[in-house]
Amino acid sequence: MRPETELALPVAESWRLAARYVSIGWIVPFDLKVDLKVEWLNCRPGVTRAGVTLGRERSLESEYLSTGEVAHLLGVSRQTVLRWVRSGALPATETLGGHLRLRVEDVEALRHRLALAAEHDGFRLGPGSNELAPAGRSVAGRRKGLRIYVVVQGRYGRRIVQNVQAHGPACWSVQVFEAPARLPVVVDDPEEFLPVAPPQVDLLLALGEEPGVAELVPDLARLTGCRAVIAPIDRTSWLPPGLRRQVEARLSELGVASVFPKPFCTLTEQSFGYRRAAERYASDPIAEFARHFGQPSLKVVVDPESRAIAQVMVERDAACGCTRYVAEHLIGVSVEEAEQKAGLLHHHYPCLASMQKEQIDEALNDTLMHVSGYVLKAAVEAEVRPFKRPPAYYTPPGKPEL
Question: How far apart are CA 114 and CA 348, in angstroms?
Fold first, then answer.
């Protein structure tokens, strides 16, 4: 409809006509003279409520773009554009018909921020923000220190991040991606849930709390250019054996080393896993991480007179920080009671590993929480063993002492 002469429509009819064009997602014809302000009131949560004036001198086409047009302009998929809208990185307005429209200036602003992110590795779009969030590392730090990207989903992952940031080497760079709290059972389109502009890193640490996060790992590894992945298994339901094999195979195709310590505190600089289930690996980024976090390693100083623990130095902490917590609370404890006390402290921390019994290796059926406790108690026992008195045996009267 492109009239040659000016239309004189009643206001009510003009309203209905303009509303119909908008509701079905069309652009109002440029020549349609409707001096009318359309208010879009029933906007969904997270979408800006806005009004647009339509007339001869301006149209929606000159100010707004569809999600498909934005995707084409920025060279991404439409799902990525929708993800930016949901996260708040790209403001949007919704028509009466449920179609999203994005202002040209907002799209240009986002394109500018993405260009900055690509040019300056170490910046990324902050979650739920329209601003670029600094990665918190210097150029020198990027060259010398281990660059780590951590995927978290809840308390389990956040606690590990806090401990690594607090007690890891100062030259390390630790950045965090907060994955959605709930993901589909099967992630058909991983791009919909991936971060907008992830940094380039050396090591990816996957701390998801459901299988959907593990499905994102190969794509995250590709986007971040990482050389290695650590995906601990502290609950088998978060990363079942079949899914682990799939993720491992896809990472291998990308040339990315991977380890799946079960539980996390079995990771060392050469291997991961408990007892006969242990597996060896060869990866510099993983070994660098495992020098500081993984299987507990302690140095204990004992008072020779009281035979109580006077000092405990943590050489390698559990990623969750449990080893450091236990070390602080072992001061003053008798060497005879240290092992049992360490086990109780481990549970009280608390350990977040699973309490569901499962086959650990060919000879052990137990819970991952108990396995984690065994690992810590073994580290303590090895340190206090030289200070323990040998066991005293009762010798019946008349029998020679052995």
Answer: 45
Residue 69 sits in the same domain as residue 154: no
pLDDT in tens, 306-323: 999 999 999 999 999 999
Interval 12-33: pLDDT, tens: 344 444 444 433 333 333 333 3
* % of residues, the chain, pLDDT over 90: 56
Identify whether 125 is part of a domain.
Answer: no
Task: Please count the residues of the chain.
Answer: 402
Last residue of a domain, one of 211, 237, 260: 260
Q: How confident is the model at residue 71 (pLDDT cuts 50, 70, 90)?
A: confident
**Cis peptide leading into residue 180 (ω within 30°):** no
Which region among 66-75, 165-174, 273-282 has the lowest average model confidence (pLDDT)?
A: 66-75
Total count of domains within the chain: 3
Bridge partner residues of 124 (DSSP): 133
Tokens of 130: 């329209």
Residue 56: which domain range?
1-101
Query: Residue 14 falls within a domain, yes or no?
Result: yes
Q: What is the DSSP string of 40-62?
A: ---PPTTSB--EEEEBTTB-HHH
DSSP string, 123-156: EEEPTT-SSEEE----HHHHHHSPEEEEEE-SHH
Residues 6+ apart with CB under 8 A from 384: 300, 302, 309, 335, 338, 339
For residue 78, the model assigns a pLDDT of: 76
The domain that holds 207 is classified in CATH as 3.40.50.720
Helix (H/G/I), strand (E/B), else coil: 315: strand
How far is Cα 368 from Cα 358, in angstroms, rounded to an integer?
Answer: 8
Any domain includes 191: yes
Cβ-contact 238, 265 below 8 angstroms = no
Q: Distances in Å between the alpha carbon of 211 and those of 187, 196, 390?
A: 9, 21, 49
pLDDT digits (tens, 9 = 90+) for 245-272: 999 999 999 999 999 999 999 999 999 9
Inside any domain, residue 116: no
Looking at the structure, tell me whether residues 151 and 230 fall in a common domain. Answer: yes
State how far the Cα of 32 lies from the Cα of 2, in Å rounded to an integer: 7
Same domain, 228 and 336: no
